[in-house]
């Protein structure tokens, strides 16, 4: 059985994902629409073992013939195999080799997250072990240039994990899920959430990932009930938990008791005008396409949206929104969820060289409801997304199957295919996001004042 770079990528993204990709019950899969789109648009096709062996032999022959550039190559042996976007022959700095082949990955983002770092390490490991090619770095090529990534700090981890990767892929060993925010668009998200809920897994507690879970396990705290009742003094020397232990325990108690816990009260500014703002951008088209806003004044509400039909319309959109804010005759408070909205405004003002004073005023009149919930209110939910919080408070989106990822597809259908119905749904989703912010704010005011 071959371990491939695809397996490496899955394992370091999520070991459970690797196991389920080969051994999970297919009837439990729920493929998110955005994943379906990516798969449909992908040009990569799975190779048969015979084709794979042929490609590996072709690469070996090209290396033996000292070909300068080898594009879309496969390297490996009977145990490991990896695809490489490009192998480039360069002069070696060591005396034992006249030249070496450096692997290059083509990516839109020059930043190397851990799954890519380990995948690159895997490639250099194969080249060093089986091709007499002692290379200790790989290159990420993006539109901003080349980034060299040294693998020295990852090699020992990779080598120690390879036996587990083999056992998970072969089915010799199973694994329990770690349910985190990153699971939201995974095809196994419901299956893993149900498994975690059945065992009251620690990662259902917001903020607990596999590192914290490992520390808690070392102290025989293995599930939510044992965390809720644990003596905090046994964890006083754990630096990883010092800051968040109280929060984790309160979150565990909230989940067990299925009720909210108020940590502390706070005061809110009073204002005749309240703005509930949600911004949506398209990262792969590189522009912000909608700024949505529910305006509440004297109990009356109105939804207003500012649209950019294309990158060229982005400046007109942000100018129109800033003009709208400036035109308000009375002081306002702007509510949003997370730090994304203020950052969007700052980026757009800088991008189009607009007066920064307008953004400063917005920030001075803004309140991040996400921060307030995280600091002051514990809810019996697994993640503190706006959708999870508002759903717990009783708010329902008009399109219940739509989430932030699906709205990206709706935007693409409009932007790339001129689908007016998709645009209507995307705007409707944005409108509901703004209304959900209003519901969250009203709950906070009632609970914390």
The secondary-structure element order is EHHHHEEEHEEHHHHHEEEEHEHHEHEHHH
Judging by the overall fold, what is the CATH architecture of the largest domain?
A: 2-Layer Sandwich
Helix and strand content put the structural class at alpha/beta
CATH topology term of the largest domain: Nucleotidyltransferase, domain 5
Provide the β-strand percentage band.
15-25%
Largest sheet: 6 strands, mixed
Give the class-level CATH name of the largest domain: Alpha Beta
Tally of strands: 13
Termini distance? Answer: 62 Å
Q: Rg, please?
A: 26 Å
Molecular structure report:
The structure is a single chain. The relative contact order is 0.09. With 449 residues, the chain is of the alpha/beta class. The chain contains 17 helices and 13 strands. It folds into 3 domains: 3-170, no CATH class; 181-259, DNA polymerase, domain 1 (Orthogonal Bundle); 273-448, Ribonuclease H-like superfamily/Ribonuclease H (Nucleotidyltransferase, domain 5, 2-Layer Sandwich), CATH 3.30.420.10. Strands 1, 2, 3, 4, 5 and 6 form a 6-stranded mixed β-sheet that branches. The chain has a 5-stranded mixed β-sheet with strand order 10-9-8-11-12. A hairpin with a 4-residue loop joins strand 8 (273-282) and strand 9 (287-297). The termini are far apart. It is globular and about 80 Å long.
């Amino acid at each position: 059985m071959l371990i491939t770079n695809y397996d490496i990528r899955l394992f370091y993204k999520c070991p459970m994902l690797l196991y389920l990709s080969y051994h999970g019950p297919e009837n439990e899969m729920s493929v998110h629409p955005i994943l379906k789109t990516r798969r449909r648009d992908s040009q990569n096709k799975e190779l048969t073992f015979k084709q794979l062996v042929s490609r590996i032999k072709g690469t070996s022959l090209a290396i033996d013939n000292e070909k300068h550039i080898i594009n879309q190559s496969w390297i490996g042996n009977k145990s490991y195999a990896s695809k490489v976007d490009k192998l480039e022959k360069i002069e070696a700095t060591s005396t034992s080799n006249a030249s070496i082949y450096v692997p290059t990955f083509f990516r839109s983002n020059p930043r190397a997250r851990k799954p890519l770092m380990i995948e690159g390490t895997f490639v250099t490991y194969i080249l060093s072990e089986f091709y007499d090619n002692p290379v200790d770095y790989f290159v990420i090529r993006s539109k901003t240039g080349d980034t060299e990534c040294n693998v020295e700090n990852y090699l020992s981890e990779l080598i120690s994990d390879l036996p587990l990767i083999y056992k998970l892929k072969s089915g010799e060993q199973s694994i329990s899920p770690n349910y985190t925010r990153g699971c939201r668009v995974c095809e196994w998200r419901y299956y893993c959430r149900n498994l975690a809920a059945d065992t009251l897994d620690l990662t259902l507690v917001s903020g607990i990932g596999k590192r914290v879970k490992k520390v808690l396990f070392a102290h025989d705290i293995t599930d939510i009930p044992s965390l809720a009742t644990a003596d905090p003094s046994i964890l006083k020397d754990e630096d990883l938990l010092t800051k968040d232990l109280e929060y984790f325990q309160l979150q565990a108690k909230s989940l067990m008791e299925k009720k909210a816990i108020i940590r502390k009260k706070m005061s809110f500014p009073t204002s005749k005008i309240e703005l509930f703002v949600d911004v949506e951008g398209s990262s792969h088209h590189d522009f912000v396409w909608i700024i949505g806003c529910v305006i509440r004044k004297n109990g009356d509400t109105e939804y207003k949206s500012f649209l950019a039909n294309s990158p060229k319309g982005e400046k007109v959109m942000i100018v129109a929104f800033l003009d709208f804010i400036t035109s308000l005759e009375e002081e306002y408070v702007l509510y949003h969820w997370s730090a994304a909205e203020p950052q969007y405004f700052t980026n757009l003002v800088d991008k189009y060289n607009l007066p920064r004073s307008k953004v400063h005023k917005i920030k001075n009149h803004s309140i991040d409801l996400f921060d307030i919930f995280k600091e002051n209110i514990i809810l019996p939910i697994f993640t503190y997304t706006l959708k999870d919080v508002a759903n717990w408070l009783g708010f329902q989106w008009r399109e219940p199957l739509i989430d932030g990822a699906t709205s990206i597809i709706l935007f693409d259908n409009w932007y790339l295919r001129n689908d007016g119905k998709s645009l209507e749904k995307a705007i409707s989703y944005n409108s509901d996001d703004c209304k959900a912010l209003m519901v969250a704010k009203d709950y906070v005011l009632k609970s914390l004042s």
